[in-house]
Amino acid sequence: MRGTVRKISMPRRLVADLMHASIGVPFVSLTRALNIRPLLEARALAAGPPGWAAIFVKAFALVAKDEPVLRTLYAKWPWPSFYELPRSIAMVAIARVEDGQDCVLPQKVPAADMLALTEVDAQIRQAKDAPIGEVPAFRKILRVTRLPLPLRRLMWLIGLNFGRQRANWFGSFGVTSVAAYGAGELHALSPGPFILSYGVVAPDQTIDVVIRWDHRITDAALIAKALTRLEQVLNGEIAAELRGQRQQTEPKPVRAVAT
């Protein structure tokens, strides 16, 4: 049977490079259903509620703010070591259609714990809707993807194995989901060190969350505690911010003035 040879597009070449870079990462994962009733109630009342990706980006960044291990990278050069970042850097998987093909590109969101939810959401939405050339994170990674294979491998080696460069190129955690297309657990791959994915909200007001992590950095006990803290942050700080947005948009009552 004769097939048709087709050129690999730039976004698919990027995914191939990501999978090659992920081969040597010893990933393990933990899944838990989080009860998010208070968050759902606050989000339902918010004017223009932010997307779930923005919510999880900020929530995980808030958890990592108090847990340095969650913003720690494994670096091989100049010798194997851990590299702790002063703040989290999220890489959000953005699903797009380019030249008639589905593709996924990473949007960088630094220090989400210091941003308003509306700002985090705006960065993610801009990456989804704007032309590729107008999104700095897309331009940067695709510039490398256009290089010949030997040069790409060299650039990836440098980007992955020096702590500072790894943070600049790949962030400290990733967020991805297929919830927009229906239920299902996604166990994604990336160079790491932490990947969070989430499902759809269940009728009992829970949501399944999967965290995959580089086992060289930490163990399951810390991730289990991080998921507990993530549930608290979603129902606490994040829900409170959503309620605050509603209060800001509501018109102030007019008091009658007696004469």
Structure description:
This protein is α/β, with parallel strands linked by helices. The protein contains eight helices and eight strands; from the N terminus they run αβααββββααααβββα. A six-stranded mixed β-sheet has the order 1-8-7-6-4-5, with helices on both faces. Helix 2 (37-45) runs parallel beside helix 8 and helix 3 (52-65) crosses helix 4 (117-129). The chain is globular and about 50 Å long. The model is unreliable at 251-259 (pLDDT under 50).
Largest sheet: 6 strands, mixed
Average pLDDT over all residues: 90
Uncertain parts: 251-259
Summarize the helix and strand pattern as letters. Answer: HEHHEEEEHHHHEEEH
Cα shape: globular
Provide a compact summary of the structure.
This protein is of the alpha/beta class.
Keywords:
alpha/beta, 8 helices, 259 residues, six-stranded mixed beta sheet
List the helices and strands and how they pair.
Blueprint: H1 10-22, E1 27-35, H2 37-45, H3 52-65, E2 72-75, E3 81-84, E4 89-98, E5 101-110, H4 117-129, H5 136-145, H6 149-161, H7 163-170, E6 173-177, E7 194-201, E8 206-214, H8 220-249
Parallel strand pairs: 4-6, 6-7
Antiparallel strand pairs: 1-8, 2-3, 4-5, 7-8
Helix pairs in contact: 2-8, 3-4, 3-8, 6-7
